[in-house]
Amino acid sequence: MKSPTQAKPMDGVAVERNAIPPLSVETPNVDQPRYTQKETLLTMLGVLLVMLLASLDQTIVSTAMPRIISELQGFDRYTWVTTAYMLTSTVMVPIYGKLSDLFGRKSIFLIGVSIFLFGSALSGAAQTMNQLIAFRALQGLGAAALLPIAIAVVGDLFTPRERGKWQGVTTAVFGLSSILGPAVGGWITENTTWRWVFYVNLPIGLIALGVLIFLMPTLHRKVAKTKIDYIGAVLLVLGTVPMLLGFTWAGGDLPWLSAQIIGLFGFSLVALVGFFVYEMRLAHRGEQPIIDPRLFKNSIFSISILVTMITNMGMFGSIFFLPLFAQGVMGVSATNSGLLLSPMMIALMISSIISGQLISRFGKYKWVAIVGLLITIAGMYLLYRLNVHSVNLDLSIAMIAVGLGLGFGMSTYTIAVQNVMPDKIGESTSALTFFRSIGSTVALAAMGSLMSSAYVPAFHNALPASLKQMLPAKLISALDNPNILLSPDAQKQLLQQFSKYGPQGKVIYNQLIEAVKVGLTQGIHNVFILSLVLMVIGLVAALFLKEVPLRGSRSRKKTQDVDDFTTDIESVSPSMLH
């Protein structure tokens, strides 16, 4: 009996005939389809408007949330406004990505933008907190299509080598939104009604919608089978939503080892295992799974997923907890904290544009990824060195270093993956976005628990022994939460109480506040240490990233020159040689 014939090994994995059909990851010798300059530029205008719209939404809304919960009387459901949006926008990302590969970017993109704008209008008109939560979930359903498909459109319009400079520009949009969002949200909240933080999406979105409808090319590749994977979609939802809820509630609303959290994680595990088993079965039959398991056999895809998840988790350690450190330890006012991250985001914008230009110029991406991680590690180390005596300059230098490093790496892995999977651009790009979002949620829960668990013992250790004996235990336990550092009114009331005892009372008050600052600093230090460790792990993983030269205009020009030379030689008649 003949032994089964083996297909070409793919990243060290031999694929047998009659097994799962191999997924081609060979780099084609031809460039991506070309479009007219007018089509390209106008489509990119629409894409950038959509990306700005989606990224601005989060920063604007978060600024207005205190006013919203005050008017709608929904403090007890405060987090659900964000949680509902996060759940729907995360779980739908790979589904939209696959659908855009099957039915074309334009149609799915337009559906996503339309749903997002409809959800924005309804959110602005919400009369109760429950309505707002429901409409934000609907808005998230549309938002899930915006960012990953926008990045995939860049992959369709440009060759891999040309994508670098455009991916750098799209990354810069996120930095711009982080700077504009708090300022715009604050101005809207102070000068108009909070409802305009949602209505402001409509004019920008309608302009983008018009550009995309009338000027964007179809960007549709022909696919033999277009059967939608409904069962896979249901299993993905059933696996992802409980996991995200578990990480959101664990350590805060519910203990990590509570029956509810364990039940959510257990249910999620069963559903996700079922999802990947079913997707493997579809791949075996040659159908179209939402996330093709064969993608992970490609080392560039797998390492890119790993590095983006790890670095995104580390990034959250700096972005989410820096305002807490600045307000709580350094005493920066809440008003000024809205612009606190500006140095980091400006540096991110600059470095993302520069790195994109370098990738396009040299056609190499691995060295850019490694340099970015090295700079980020240096920045994380500077964050770790911050203490209760640090000044604004220390914080700004550390943030600039982190921003420069993150900007170098944010779009690099998308370019690398799209380069080796030209026929799976939507699916692979959305998978990167999906796993990046999962990493963010996991990091937020883990780092929040880490900070809280480190704060209490550090606070008690920083208290002088004389104060522990002098002050009632009830007062000390009330400071087991560092919220007093974020409330000037609470600090003023506590100072007034201690001032009754004269100068000695003020000394005791200052010692208490100093101990709280020391405890909070230690808790955030632990977060920065974890972020630093994650970045180092990401650097080690990036060293194994394969370098596949980017296809693009430079190589195409060389090929054209060779063809022209060959044609000229063939046109020479023998008589001309004598």
Automatic annotation (TrEMBL):
<keyword id="KW-0813">Transport</keyword>
<feature type="transmembrane region" description="Helical">
    <location>
        <begin position="108"/>
        <end position="127"/>
    </location>
</feature>
<keyword id="KW-0472">Membrane</keyword>
<keyword id="KW-0812">Transmembrane</keyword>
<feature type="transmembrane region" description="Helical">
    <location>
        <begin position="166"/>
        <end position="188"/>
    </location>
</feature>
<feature type="transmembrane region" description="Helical">
    <location>
        <begin position="194"/>
        <end position="216"/>
    </location>
</feature>
<feature type="domain" description="Major facilitator superfamily (MFS) profile">
    <location>
        <begin position="43"/>
        <end position="550"/>
    </location>
</feature>
<protein>
    <submittedName>
        <fullName>MFS transporter</fullName>
    </submittedName>
</protein>
<feature type="transmembrane region" description="Helical">
    <location>
        <begin position="438"/>
        <end position="458"/>
    </location>
</feature>
<dbReference type="InterPro" id="IPR004638">
    <property type="entry name" value="EmrB-like"/>
</dbReference>
<feature type="transmembrane region" description="Helical">
    <location>
        <begin position="133"/>
        <end position="154"/>
    </location>
</feature>
<feature type="transmembrane region" description="Helical">
    <location>
        <begin position="338"/>
        <end position="360"/>
    </location>
</feature>
<keyword id="KW-1133">Transmembrane helix</keyword>
<feature type="transmembrane region" description="Helical">
    <location>
        <begin position="77"/>
        <end position="96"/>
    </location>
</feature>
<feature type="transmembrane region" description="Helical">
    <location>
        <begin position="367"/>
        <end position="384"/>
    </location>
</feature>
<keyword id="KW-1003">Cell membrane</keyword>
<feature type="transmembrane region" description="Helical">
    <location>
        <begin position="299"/>
        <end position="326"/>
    </location>
</feature>
<dbReference type="InterPro" id="IPR036259">
    <property type="entry name" value="MFS_trans_sf"/>
</dbReference>
<feature type="transmembrane region" description="Helical">
    <location>
        <begin position="527"/>
        <end position="545"/>
    </location>
</feature>
<dbReference type="Pfam" id="PF07690">
    <property type="entry name" value="MFS_1"/>
</dbReference>
<feature type="transmembrane region" description="Helical">
    <location>
        <begin position="228"/>
        <end position="250"/>
    </location>
</feature>
<dbReference type="InterPro" id="IPR011701">
    <property type="entry name" value="MFS"/>
</dbReference>
<feature type="transmembrane region" description="Helical">
    <location>
        <begin position="256"/>
        <end position="278"/>
    </location>
</feature>
<dbReference type="InterPro" id="IPR020846">
    <property type="entry name" value="MFS_dom"/>
</dbReference>
<feature type="transmembrane region" description="Helical">
    <location>
        <begin position="396"/>
        <end position="417"/>
    </location>
</feature>
<feature type="transmembrane region" description="Helical">
    <location>
        <begin position="41"/>
        <end position="65"/>
    </location>
</feature>
